[in-house]
Amino acid sequence: MVSRVIPVEPFDLVIFGGTGDLARRKILPGLFRRFCAGQMPKNSRIIGAARADMDAAAYQAFVGEAISEFGGARTCEDGTLQEFLAQISYQTVDIRGDNGWDMLKADLSGDGRVEAFYFSVGPSLFGDIAERLHRFGMATPDTRIVVEKPFGRDLDTAKALNATLATHFEEGQIYRIDHYLGKETVQNLMAVRFGNVLFEPLWNSQYIDHIQITVAETVGVGGRGEYYDKSGAMRDMVQNHLMQLLCLIAMEPPAKFDPDSVRDEKLKVIRALEPVELHHMVRGQYEADGDEPDYRTAVNDPRSRTESFVAIKAHVSNWRWAGTPIYLRTGKNLVARSSEIAVVFKPLAHSIFSTGEADLPSNVLAIQLQPNEGITMNVTIKEPGPGGMRLVDVPLDMTFAEALGEEGGDPPDAYERLIMDVIRGNQTLFMRGDEVEAAWAWTDPIIEGWQARHDVPKPYEPGSSGPTDSDQLMIRDNRKWREIKV
Ligand code: NAD
């Protein structure tokens, strides 16, 4: 089966921060791949807008280099790169001042096509861009803005940012990025849940013992130490990525697959999250590893109490999930780079086989998001061959990449998909303002509690699965974390 690529309408995309790291690694190579796939029309325009003083030719050279470094394995016909680069221009803009904005406006096509502005700059500049887009006549009712993370650092700052954006744009024009939502498998999770009769009847606390969501990184804070130390794992990962995954796994079936129906259901999940009890959280900081410094040295603060690891036992307080905990875990400098959601079903009520039911492994639906994407369902079957009824636990691969042809096995990167969704005007995979605020309303008291108690994170060995207290969190409940592995 060959997947279909449906081209979007021609568009203008302005990338504020067009010379930055995110633009170089993700946005620009991603756009090129959509161009190669035939999804981005040839008369679309990309305008880089940043502080650096350069002309269109220099920016095109910059984009060409970014593509050769981060372009990915997909092949393109000869000459395609030149065609793509011909659609790119650049405008030097001072986001905090007024220089360059008139020229930027003059550079837009202005023929009624979609105009999208990607805020790929530090969050302190989001408000300035919104205000100047308005003042320089670029904030029309059809304009779309794409806002990167972090969206605030607590409820108050998120509310203030929402209010600033709302001064100039309607909610339907604002696309808040959480790139986890752009992953193929995250959408496949919704297809599996809501497109099959098999799962929904079992999707509740009667059949599901617990859910584990893990986002593990092998890298430490690297050169971002001082920035990271102001946020920590809770703000950097849990409040956005892990909460979004939790919402998708726990939400009620929306009435329709449209942006507000989906986001209404996600919001209800966040609002149903109970405050987390003290003994249901573990924080950690990694130790030194040979020449690699420990967390406190890496962030240049020997007294830092910021967590580089956090594990939480969360409860969604509603009929569906009463009694089924959702365990969240994320950290840096762990044993493997792996993001996974695991839905662990309850043990068999009764085994007819000679093995007791306790010896039969539970069914597990595992959704891998990183580094490889895929969905597997562990089931018990008979071991083939003679020798009586010997049972084995095997994973069923539900990704079906081979059956779905080339794009099924090599789906668009999250950023590619999300940018195309912006152009199509589909907000389903973007966070709504009230969702972000509700997420902060849940995380704020947790962080404030740590600060008030002067909570000291537990040390953990680099290359491990986090502090031993994190294992204890599970052992106390007669459960076990799944192994973090690629
Ligand atoms: P960066 O520091 O590499 O780039 C910043 C860009 O903003 C540069 O192009 C710079 O010229 C421009 N800029 C800064 N101040 C300006 C001003 N006053 N006027 C005009 N231009 C100005 O940052 P980045 O890593 O690309 O991150 C951009 C945004 O994306 C941030 O909000 C970040 O949190 C978010 N983000 C980045 C990554 C990543 O992998 N880099 C991942 C997720 C989210």
Tag the structure with descriptive keywords.
486 residues; alpha/beta; Rossmann fold; Dihydrodipicolinate Reductase, domain 2; 2 domains; 9-stranded mixed sheet; 6-stranded parallel sheet; 15 helices; 15 strands; globular; binds nicotinamide-adenine-dinucleotide
Please describe what this structure looks like.
The structure is a single chain. This protein has 486 residues and is an alpha/beta fold. The protein folds into 2 domains: 11-148, Rossmann fold; 181-232 and 277-424 and 457-475, Dihydrodipicolinate Reductase, domain 2. It is built from 15 helices and 15 strands. It has helices at 21-36, 56-70, 80-85, 101-107, 126-135, 155-168, 184-194, 225-229, 232-250, 259-272, 295-298, 405-409, 414-424, 433-453, 468-475; strands at residues 11-16, 45-50, 88-92, 114-119, 144-147, 174-176, 208-216, 281-286, 309-314, 326-331, 338-345, 364-370, 374-382, 391-397, 458-460. Strands 14-13-12-11-7-10-9-8-15 form a 9-stranded mixed beta sheet, sandwiched between helices. Helix 1 (21-36) links the parallel strand 1 and strand 2 (45-50). Helix 6 (155-168) runs antiparallel to helix 14 (433-453) and helix 9 (232-250) crosses helix 10 (259-272). It is globular, with a radius of gyration of 24 Å. It starts with 10 loop residues before the first strand and ends in an 11-residue tail after the last helix. The structure holds nicotinamide-adenine-dinucleotide. Residues 17-23, 50-52, 93-96, 120-123, 125, 148-150 line the site of nicotinamide-adenine-dinucleotide. The site of nicotinamide-adenine-dinucleotide has 22 residues, from helix 1.
